[in-house]
Design a protein that fits this description.
heterodimer, A: 391 residues, alpha+beta, Butyryl-Coa Dehydrogenase, subunit A, domain 1, Butyryl-CoA Dehydrogenase, subunit A, domain 2, Butyryl-CoA Dehydrogenase, subunit A, domain 3, 3 domains, 4-stranded mixed sheet, globular, B: 252 residues, alpha/beta, Rossmann fold, 9-stranded mixed sheet, two-stranded antiparallel sheet, 11 strands, binds flavin-adenine dinucleotide
Chain lengths: 391, 252
């Protein structure tokens, strides 16, 4: 049994997902791209279909109504999901943050459960204009006022910030402690006085997911809006980060590369120049072979690391390596795909240019390549190869 | 009533098959395998009949190697209640499969067996008919619509697409149906059903235990690729066309 071997259940799931994606989603990818933020009427029927099939929030535990998939199982599912566009992924399969499992008491009915059911949309707001990679340096504050807190600050680049019914907002509650107990996560509802959605920030790719600024001006939230414990925002986020990175960057990147490779292999056997299929030219073959080989490497890394996560092994540094390699791999795959398609590769008549634009941000969000490289090198020099899984 | 649905593991319909170098058959090493698409339609039809309250139980059956379990798990994920694998490494020809199915029908006593009209690998289009013959049951092949009024109905109505129109047949039960492409559109397997399928029973029997000799009756002499299509050409006039048809193609 290899690490990429699927159980019969996962095999059935990935087949069903593949068919759903090819039948229901591929035909609307182009339309949705041009909508600049698809209206709810467009998304609802697709999301409802996915929900009826149990394909919504598959990452969440079964006891809260999610799919209950383990990390490796989720990665196999995400590989399929990666074969469609990021907008559709978020809207149809759901972007439900594992961190919501920290919801307690009435928060479960208000936030966790309706989000898993696809009835409420959520966004997560950490990044600020002056705090990106250095997320610990955020300056949005939450100061005690009465029983609750007053939030002040500006967040930006917040995916689906305009569509969200509520935001998970990271704010400083203790300037001295910062990441060590001084940053708290808050659940802030849309329309809370003092909370407004600001300007849209148009991105080169992933059109249809809108990214916005979120403004907080003397925004009062009660104590019941704290997610988890006061001061525990960062550790809580880090607790689920390995799973999220593996599935949503690693496995999705593999899936996207797979889709690109299918498109390239088909084009190479159809397109004729100089009286030959372009796939007969060795320079085209080299590009196909390199993408296939790198995709195989990334896939093996994803699944091997997912098995470790499922076994309860803390393999954060391995996850960093997977995130780094898979995100860069899919960008090389997209670049080669453009090259194989020639002019059609940069033309909006073919899907390749869209993947090229969509893939770029994989190297930036969820920790830039540089941040992960720095982490890997630091751990190597400090603790040797063991934590990197190389021994 | 109980419905038996035989399902076959075949090369996936997206795969471009290759002939083995020695011409003995199709090379299926490392090739993606799936449930025969006509059989998926059969499973879907059976599940719909159960959902309507006509059928009480849907039993999926596959004959072949251990890996056919995967195909059966798929049928269970779509909604079949339990599964039986007739496990053998022997090459199975339509008559052998029909005999194995007959033995299972004798054991399970279904009132309806729904099969695909053919498997997309060997395209034999024989198993359903042979099974009907062995059982002495009525058969409705290439069905595009099936209507059964009640669980204890003595007859059913089946529509078939034939050359030049639709044929409507009144068929006595118990009976055999084989499915055509337009009978229905199989559903997606849902995640909860896929997980439930894990707990559904899958029994294995051997042909010997069913008292069936599966020895092939037919020998495959050679499997070859279809001739490559040659490029066309233009002719200047009718005389040239006729000359080419007579001298080159030798068809007139
Ligand atoms: C499309 C998109 C969606 C996003 N969605 C969200 C969201 O939903 N919620 C949210 O909170 N945030 C979101 N973000 C923000 C994202 O997490 C940040 O963009 C990311 O963390 C990088 O921060 P930055 O853009 O400020 O870049 P910077 O941190 O300013 O980095 C600039 C450059 O400096 C390099 N660099 C920085 N520090 C180091 C270092 N220590 N060593 C070496 N090099 C370094 C970086 O690698 C990069 O090359 C999104 C961003 C994008 C583009």
């Amino acid at each position: 049994m290899t690490i990429c071997q699927k159980s019969p259940e996962v095999e059935a799931l990935t087949r069903s997902l593949r068919r759903f994606i090819e039948t229901e989603l591929h035909p609307v990818e182009h339309t949705i791209e041009t909508m600049q933020g698809p209206p709810d009427e467009f998304i609802r029927p697709l999301r409802d279909k996915a929900r009826a099939l149990g394909f919504y929030a598959m990452n969440m535990p079964a006891e809260v109504g999610g799919g209950g998939l383990g990390t490796a199982e989720m990665c196999f599912a995400e590989e399929q999901i990666g074969r469609t566009s990021p907008v559709l992924i978020r809207q149809v399969f759901g972007q439900v943050y594992l961190m919501l499992m920290a919801c307690k008491g009435a928060q479960r009915e208000r936030y966790l459960l309706p989000t898993v059911r696809g009835e409420r949309n959520c966004c997560i707001a950490i990044t600020e204009p002056n705090a990106g990679s250095d997320a610990a340096s955020i300056t949005t504050t939450a100061e005690p006022r009465g029983e609750g807190f007053i939030i002040n600050g500006l967040k930006h680049f917040i995916s689906d910030g305009d569509r969200a019914d509520y935001a998970i907002v990271m704010a400083v509650t203790d300037k001295a402690k910062r990441v060590k107990g001084g940053i708290t996560a808050f659940l802030v509802d849309k329309n809370t006085p003092g909370f407004t959605v600001g300007a849209a920030q148009n991105m080169m790719g992933q059109h249809g997911v809108r990214h916005v600024e979120l403004h907080f001006t003397d925004c009062y939230v009660g104590p019941e809006q704290v997610l988890g414990e006061v001061g525990q925002g960062f550790p809580m986020m880090l607790a689920s980060v390995s799973r999220v990175r593996l599935a949503q960057i690693g496995a999705r990147a593999v899936g996207m590369a797979g889709r690109l490779l299918d498109l390239c292999a088909a084009y190479a056997t159809e397109r004729t120049q100089f009286g030959k299929k372009i796939g007969e030219f060795q320079m085209i073959q080299q590009m196909l072979a390199d993408t296939a080989t790198e995709m195989f490497a990334a896939r093996t890394m994803v699944m091997g690391t997912a098995a470790n996560v499922d076994a309860g092994i803390d393999c954060r540094e391995q996850v960093s390596m997977v995130k780094l390699f898979a995100s860069e791999m899919v960008n090389r795959a997209a670049d080669r795909a453009v090259q194989i398609f020639g002019g059609m590769g940069v033309c909006q008549e073919a899907p390749v240019e869209r993947f090229f634009r969509d893939a770029r941000v994989f190297r930036i969000y969820d920790g830039t390549s540089e941040i992960h490289r720095a982490r890997i090198a630091t751990v190597l020099m400090r603790d040797g190869q063991g934590p990197l899984g190389l021994e | 009533m109980k419905i038996l649905v035989p399902v076959k593991r075949v090369v996936d319909y997206n795969v471009k098959v290759r002939i083995k170098p020695d011409g003995s058959g199709v090379d299926i090493a490392n090739v993606k395998m799936s449930m025969n698409p006509f059989d998926e339609i059969a499973v879907e039809e059976a599940i719909r009949l159960r959902e309507k309250g006509i059928a009480t139980e849907v039993v999926a059956v596959s004959c072949g190697i251990a890996a056919c379990q995967e195909t059966l798990r798929n049928a269970l994920a779509l909604g079949a209640d339990r599964a039986i694998l007739v496990e053998t490494d022997a090459e199975l020809q339509p008559l052998a499969v029909a005999k194995l199915l007959k033995a299972l029908v004798d054991k399970e006593a279904p009132r309806l067996v729904i099969l695909g009209k053919q498997a997309i690998d060997d395209d034999a289009n024989q198993t359903g008919q042979m099974l009907a013959g062995l059982l002495g049951w009525a058969q409705a092949t290439s069905a595009s619509k099936v209507e059964i009024a009640a669980a204890d109905a003595a007859e059913m109505t089946v529509k078939r697409e034939i050359d030049g129109g639709l044929e409507t047949m009144q068929v006595k039960l118990p009976a055999i149906i084989t499915t055509d492409l337009r009978l229905n559109e199989p559903r997606y397997a849902t995640l909860p059903n896929i997980m439930k399928a894990k707990k559904k029973p899958l029994d294995t029997v051997k042909p010997d235990a069913l008292g069936v000799d599966v020895t092939p009756r037919l020998a495959t002499l050679k499997v070859a690729e279809p001739a490559k299509r040659r490029g066309g050409g233009k002719v200047a006039d009718v005389q040239e066309l006729v000359a080419k048809l007579r001298n080159e193609a030798k068809v007139i």
